[in-house]
Design brief:
Chain lengths: ~375, ~170
């Protein structure tokens, strides 16, 4: 199977729309680039604006941003675990992990008022403070989730069917991951020790002590282990952040007009490095806002992962980069590229091809099918 | 001397003409602006000798008379180098960098679609990110671009046009 991605089905023109709105309005627009990584995009944007404006964001705000960011990563990775389970026919895993994900969704709703699109960030800090009661609630949730994650790690390490279904599927060598510019867990599962939280620390990460989780399986199984390892790291980061969080104000007043200047901001989204470039011209509206969401970087690796692979592996391989097409786009169209013609295969042709493929390998159900139809 | 300053000095030693535009913006951020005829040499040096082995993205900007392209490169230690390049807006032409970074293809297609930049050496392929039936001479990120009515119409607005405000 050959693979090419046609992107653009959901180009929403957000970058252009940002130029016509004020910096304050853009925070809310940018937050809606993605429902799952909403805090990612808004943090990445406000960081750039704060740098241009020379704002001294209070430390407590930076800690709160990190805590929300890690809670967002937990909900995103648990969501991924369920999707991955579903794509390989392990729906029990989907039910379990999505039930547990509700714990983190509830705590996010309690902290911010919303399950997604938290609206925590403002230029100059965050909007809501963490009260001692909320901190206690976070700690309780994290304890519960840590226990559950330990169980999932045990499943991932011992459940033979899962290991066999995911091993050797969607392989991406270390060299390819580097040359194609893979990011996030996709890169780290090919033993690329890149994580913006440790390479280019933002928010409170430089003070939290951070371990980059990597794996050398180079396949979907490796990507599963990396995400599970990152969940454990997130629990540790949240506990450290809560312990070290200083008292004090949570925001500073930001000017309406942002002085002329430019800044490049990076953020480790659950899916990998998110890059924002913001240029200001001295007015209350930005001159240019550029967003490079992590999925766009990873999509270019998918073609490599699917080279000469089976169609049946396509769902899990695409799911394994944890694609977020609302950040990047929306849909992928696959054309059969065998030979050099690009004719799309019809559903019935695909079915016949599948039957023949198995028959040529000694798996033949035609007798059984005949017997069944006679009895019916 | 910080790593950022050392890297910048290395670059300035080979290309003294960059002196006016080059600066360390803050920790882990270096900015330079390069003339078009020296761009490839600077780019190659940054990748092969200064270890900027990661291409984060390419930003295109409409700056009035020129189209600016900023190549955001990064090292493994998190230091970023933004290499700026200008090309006249009347006929914006740049050369592709896919031989340095295969991943540049999608970012260069964005420059083609959204700003009308001609990227020499970029292989033919599927357009990104605009739809297949989008006119070839409409580039939405240009500052003077205005959407034509056909692009902003919705089923409801079309019905209104056809029926001559019959709903009112």
């Amino acid at each position: 199977m050959g693979f090419s991605a046609r992107l653009g089905y959901n180009h929403r023109g957000i970058e252009k729309a940002c130029e016509g709105r004020t910096f304050q309005q853009d925070v809310y627009l940018i937050e809606r680039i993605c429902g799952i990584c909403s805090h990612t995009h808004s943090t990445c944007f406000v960081q750039a604006v704060e740098e241009i404006a020379g704002l001294d964001t209070p430390k407590r705000a930076l800690y709160i941003r990190s805590i929300i960011g890690e809670l967002e990563r937990i909900h995103s990775h648990l969501l991924w675990l369920g999707v991955a389970g579903h794509e390989v026919g392990f729906d029990t895993l989907l039910m379990y992990s999505w039930r547990d994900r509700e714990v983190v969704m509830d705590i996010l709703a309690e902290l911010t008022g919303n399950r997604v699109n938290y609206g925590m960030n403002i230029i100059g800090g965050v909007k809501r403070d963490l009260t001692p009661d909320l901190v206690k609630a976070i700690e309780k949730s994290v304890d519960l989730l840590e226990e559950r994650t330990k169980y999932y790690i045990q499943v991932a390490k011992e459940e033979t069917t899962l290991i066999q279904r995911l091993s050797g599927v969607g392989t991406l060598s270390h060299e390819d991951a580097v040359s194609l510019g893979a990011v996030g867990p996709t890169a780290r599962a090919s033993n690329v020790a890149r994580d913006t939280r440790s390479d280019d620390p933002y928010a409170a990460y430089s003070e939290l002590g951070f371990n980059v989780v990597t794996d050398d399986h180079n396949d979907v199984y490796g990507r599963t282990l990396v995400r599970m390892g990152e969940l454990m790291e997130s629990y540790r980061l949240i506990r450290t952040a809560i312990r070290n969080m200083p008292e004090g104000p949570i925001n500073v007043k930001a000017p309406r007009k942002i002085p002329a200047g430019e800044a490049t901001s990076r953020y480790e989204a659950p899916r990998g490095e998110d890059v924002h470039y913001v240029k200001s011209n001295g007015t209350d509206k930005p001159e240019r806002v550029k967003v490079r969401a992590p999925t766009l970087a990873n999509l270019q690796c998918v073609a490599k992962m699917l080279e000469d692979r089976q169609l049946a592996d396509l769902p899990i391989v695409i799911a394994a980069i944890d694609p977020c097409f609302s950040c990047t786009d929306r849909s992928i169209k696959v054309a059969d590229a065998s030979g050099r013609t690009r004719n799309t295969m019809k559903w019935e042709e695909l079915r016949i091809k599948g039957i023949e493929w198995y028959r040529s390998r000694g798996v033949d159900f035609s007798k059984l099918n005949r017997r069944l139809s006679e009895r019916l | 001397m910080t790593t950022e300053e050392t890297l910048l000095n290395e670059l300035l030693k080979k290309f003294p003409e960059l002196h006016d535009s080059a600066r360390v913006q803050r920790a882990r951020r270096i900015i330079v602006e390069v003339a078009q005829n020296r761009f490839e040499e600077v780019f190659a040096l940054a990748k092969h000798e200064l270890d900027f082995t990661i291409l984060c993205t390419i930003t295109g900007l409409d700056e009035g008379k020129d189209i600016a392209c900023i190549y955001h490169l990064s090292r493994k230690d998190g230091i970023m180098l933004n290499i700026g390049l200008r090309t006249p807006k009347e006929k914006p032409v740049i050369k592709t960098v896919i031989k340095y970074f295969p991943s540049a293809e999608i970012y260069e297609r964005e420059l083609v679609d959204l700003l009308g930049v001609i990227v020499e050496g970029l292989p033919e392929g599927i357009r990104y990110p605009l739809p297949d039936d989008w006119p070839n001479d409409e580039h939405p990120l240009l500052k003077d671009w205005k959407p034509r009515s056909a692009m902003t119409s919705t089923p409801a607005s079309r019905m209104k046009e056809e029926t001559g405000n019959a709903t009112a």
